[in-house]
From TrEMBL:
Protein's UniProt name: PD-(D/E)XK endonuclease-like domain-containing protein
Origin species: Corticimicrobacter populi
Entries under InterPro entries matching the protein: DNA_repair_protein_predicted, P-loop_NTPase, PDDEXK_AddAB-type
Entries under SUPFAM superfamilies matching the protein: P-loop containing nucleoside triphosphate hydrolases
Annotated ranges, domain PD-(D/E)XK endonuclease-like: 624-889
Pfam families: PDDEXK_1 (PF12705)
Coiled-coil intervals, chain numbering: none
Length: 908
């Protein structure tokens, strides 16, 4: 086989009708077509061009043509890369079923790569060279070939072999008179066999020097050393921006060794450097790096709605995060007009602490927010659960396409170019999944959807290159065979060119070394690096190679191939780091006051809420203003099954149900004496579970009930040892009004004892408030019990009951000894000195209380001041204790340094 060199003039002189051009990649094929079209004169509107395609595309087309005749037998199915991977996994899983720790997915990728290497590089392993890994692989490969035969299928490698056999044996297969190869640095044995077959059939083989009018003779090679990788990128982007503005018709490229990881930084710097200036338009560019198809928003939306359908089709409920993702992504009918309503559904589900939602409740919420979607939903669900439809991969693909169509996908708004291309790629992925029917004749709905999601994850997608882009940002392999007016190649440190060898572990290293297979040896990597460097040197007349001196604490060295190049200085303007603008400060701590409540006006002027209004006003007045006056807060996280919120609600329900039955300590003692207490606790847990754990899995339900019963029994043992009491109220609500405020507080339990009333508040967390710290502050927090005691009155003790699997204990304060371990007396507490300026009126909190009435008066005064502050609109952005904002859901708005506060508090 002999390849003759061909320059651009000779390339243009070849007869187009009888010429085939094979390129190393798709980008080079498009470039050759564009360059040939550019050479047409203004009078030549129509001209015949030779066929220019990547080699891989031509092999597929030739395999399809063989189906219309020929002597080489044709397989019924051709497996794409994902189907090939799937078949390898199945074969390996069957052969290694007794090795559950083996990663079948990773092993299948290695096996598919080893299989392709053996075919592409004509590898033969002698018995004396076989390793244990190769022996296992050989068994898998035999089973894989048998599976292909049983399915009457072929993969890409065997399809290419069939094409080569047809070129050699079948005279009916047409062969062009001229075959031009562009962008190839080397040819594998299989490619050499293909070219030999073409030459034997009379084809003239040519090697195109470059894809421009003249062969590139590099006139200038330079090296630039940057301080670090970030600086290297900034310099390269500044160089490209200057060249583009200096030469409006020029075409330039930035070639990065690690573009996939550097792409976010590259895009940010390019947006800044190429942004539109006054009187100018933004300079377009193209970043040639693809992302998995399932990461694009429109594809994520389709998957989210299909997952919601799949979940409701196979279960009575659906997890809230699944519904929330679909609601937020939209891309369905009515999403534009009902966007706010759909988002509101998600916000409410987050705040409610729901873990799952029933379908009836879901449809009710959809009907209120998006009636058109609610109607379409039921139709789409009917398609999903249609018992008459098949269960093969092609049947599920048809169902998904129909369901998405009924839901109005991709939505009411018009798609931009990228969104349209992503939809086209999604449709093509559905067709690819349908072709999996040969491997997957029967699939359950959820299993099928997970398999398709995996296919989308393994499918890279990159939008088409902007036709007017004059700057290309691409990787080393994508730059092969390209041609620009200037190129900057960055990231060429000694770890990159050449790279470390990475031979396939399933093949003997000696065999790979003898064949000169890619990534096999250090020498092979050096040869590849030299070839790549030579190819890069042919891409432009002006090339800058660069590297970083340091990456963090690690010292870097230039790649050996560029180490001898002359160092270049910065001869292009680099944008200076903009100086910080002078800071303008505006102190605005006063919002509009609430309208005063007038009795004759009825309820019109009343603002209702919970005690959380005063709690946040005490911690940070601006937080209270933002939450309750502006309705602003960060988006809550989704509740987790068995999480703190749902678990706490359930445990509260157990104690409520239990004390409604018991009613007093005497009846508690009676139940214990009659050995009925455990049964009563179990019954209360079952009753609460029906209300709070209805959506939990059976195993979770039983575990939570057992946990709650254990905690309740331990607490009842403490209650049984107290002085006599009876229940005066369970989950009792009280409304307090002051000015325009109407606040409601709900108490878990009120005990009547001889000395008065003891108010009990259940705390189900692993840590609870410290009354001696939180209730003695000048601006008290954890206000529920102090509020009730000071505002309602008639209370002699306050108790926080910690109900947790690790600890059951009581904390609080009482006027008299109530026989409860953990209740302090007033003299036991340390009170801070009065400090002016703690409240809006700049007054102090008064002297430290000396007796119970003074304590209640102090609390009442502080609570009334907090209420007056809030009603007056006082919204100073201040937190007097760092821990007060530890769980703040408005920290991004307040913009306060929590870490410094926490450090100060720890030191104190």
């Amino acid at each position: 086989m002999e390849l003759q060199e061909l320059d651009w003039a000779g390339w243009m002189a070849l007869p187009a009708a009888d010429t085939l051009a094979l390129t190393v990649n798709n980008r080079l094929a498009r470039r050759l077509i564009a360059d040939m079209a550019a050479t047409l004169g203004p009078q030549q509107r129509v001209a015949e061009l030779p066929r220019i395609v990547p080699l891989s595309v031509w092999l597929v087309d030739m395999a399809d043509q063989l189906g219309f005749g020929g002597q080489v037998p044709l397989a019924a199915w051709r497996l794409d890369s994902f189907a090939t991977q799937r078949l390898w996994e199945r074969v390996i899983a069957q052969a290694e079923h007794d090795r559950p720790l083996l990663d079948f997915g990773q092993t299948a990728r290695l096996a598919a790569d080893a299989d392709a290497l053996m075919d592409e590089w004509d590898l033969a392993v002698a018995p004396t060279e076989a390793t244990h890994e190769y022996t296992r692989f050989a068994c898998w490969r035999e089973a894989y070939v048998r599976q292909l035969a049983a399915l009457d299928a072929e993969d890409a490698g065997r399809s290419a072999a069939r094409v080569i056999d047809a070129l050699s044996l079948d005279e009916a297969v047409p062969v062009p008179a001229h075959v031009v190869l562009a962008g190839f640095n080397e040819y594998s044995p299989r490619q050499q066999a293909m070219l030999a077959a073409l030459a034997a059939r009379g084809a003239q083989l040519w090697q195109l020097h470059a894809d421009s009018a003249e062969r590139v003779e590099t006139s200038q090679l330079r090296r630039f050393a940057a301080a670090d990788p970030q600086t290297e990128w900034r310099m390269a982007v500044a160089w490209a921006a200057e060249r583009l503005r200096t030469d409006p018709q020029g075409r330039y490229a930035i070639v990065a060794a690690h573009l996939e990881s550097d792409a976010p930084l590259a895009r940010r710097l390019l947006e800044q450097a190429l942004a539109a200036r006054p009187g100018q338009s933004a300079l377009p560019y193209n970043v040639a790096v693809g992302r998995p198809l399932d990461e694009w928003p429109v594809v994520r939306a389709a998957l989210a709605w299909l997952e919601t359908l799949a979940t409701f089709a196979e279960n009575t409920t659906c997890p809230v995060p699944v519904l929330g993702q679909a609601l937020l992504l939209g891309q369905v009918t009515g999403d534009r007009s009902a966007q706010a309503g759909m988002v509101e559904i998600d916000v409410r589900q987050r705040r409610s602490g729901e873990v799952t939602v029933t379908q009836a409740r879901w449809l009710e919420r959809l009907q209120g927010a998006n009636p058109a979607l609610a109607q379409a939903w039921q139709q789409a669900l009917a398609i999903w659960v249609d018992p008459g439809a098949g269960t093969a991969a092609q049947d599920w693909a048809a169902r998904w396409r129909a369901a998405l169509g009924l839901l109005g996908f991709p939505g009411d708004a018009s798609l931009d170019s990228v969104g349209f291309q992503a939809c086209e790629a999604l449709s093509a992925a559905l067709d690819r999944f349908a072709a999996l029917s040969v491997l997957e004749p029967e699939l359950e709905g959820t299993v099928a959807l997970r398999l398709w999601q995996r296919m989308l994850t393994n499918t890279p997608f990159q939008p088409q290159r902007a036709p007017d882009a004059r700057l290309d940002v691409l990787g080393l392999l994508e730059a092969e065979g390209g041609r620009w007016d200037g190129v900057w190649v960055l990231g060429l440190v000694d770890e990159v060119l050449p790279d470390m060898p990475s031979p396939n572990p399933l093949l003997p290293a000696q065999v790979l070394r003898q064949a000169g297979a890619p990534r096999a040896t250090v020498d092979r990597e050096r040869i590849w690096a030299e070839q790549m460097y030579a190819a890069l040197c042919r891409t432009a007349p002006d090339i800058m190679f660069s590297h970083a001196r340091r990456d963090g604490e690690r010292e870097m060295r230039p790649a050996p191939l560029i180490a001898a190049l002359p160092l270049a200085g910065c001869d292009w303007p680099v944008p200076a780091v903009p100086a910080a603008l002078p800071q303008e400060t505006l102190v605005d701590e006063q919002g509009p006051a609430l309208a005063l409540w007038q009795p004759e006006a009825g309820e019109a002027g009343v603002m209702r809420g919970g005690l959380d209004v005063l709690e946040l006003q005490s911690r940070n007045p601006q937080w209270a203003f933002l939450r309750h006056r502006l309705g602003g807060r960060s988006l809550a996280s989704y509740a987790q099954p068995g999480g703190a919120l749902s678990r706490g609600q359930f445990l509260h329900g157990v104690m409520e149900a239990l004390w409604k039955v018991l009613g007093s300590q005497d009846r508690l003692h009676q139940a214990m004496a009659e050995h009925r207490l455990e049964a009563l606790v179990a019954e209360a847990a079952e009753q609460a579970a029906r209300q709070y754990l209805d959506d939990a899995l059976p195993a979770e339900r039983e575990l939570e009930k057992a946990r709650a019963c254990g905690i309740a029994l331990r607490w009842l043992d403490l209650d049984a040892q107290r002085e006599p009491f009876r229940i005066d109220g369970v989950e009792q609500a009280h409304v307090w009004r002051r000015g325009p405020l109407s606040l409601q507080v709900r108490l878990d339990r009120i005990d009547q004892v001889d000395e008065g009333r003891l108010v009990v508040d259940y705390k189900t967390g692993s840590s609870v408030a410290e009354p001696g710290r939180d209730w003695t502050r000048l601006r008290p927090v954890e206000l529920q019990l102090p509020f009730y005691a000071s505002v309602v009155g008639g209370v002699s003790g306050l108790m926080l009951a910690q109900l947790h699997a690790r600890k059951v204990a009581a904390k609080g304060i009482a006027e008299h000894d109530m026989g409860v371990v953990g209740l302090a007396h007033l003299p036991d507490w340390q009170w801070p000195d009065a400090v002016p300026g703690m409240f809006m009126d700049d007054s102090s909190a008064g002297p430290a209380p000396q007796d119970w009435p003074a304590l209640l008066l102090r609390w009442r005064t502080a609570i009334e001041r907090l209420a007056d502050e809030y009603a007056a609109g006082w919204a100073v952005n201040r937190a007097w204790h760092g821990a007060d904002l530890r769980y703040c859901d408005a920290a991004a708005f307040l913009r306060l340094d929590l870490e410094d506060w926490q450090a100060e508090e720890d030191e104190a």
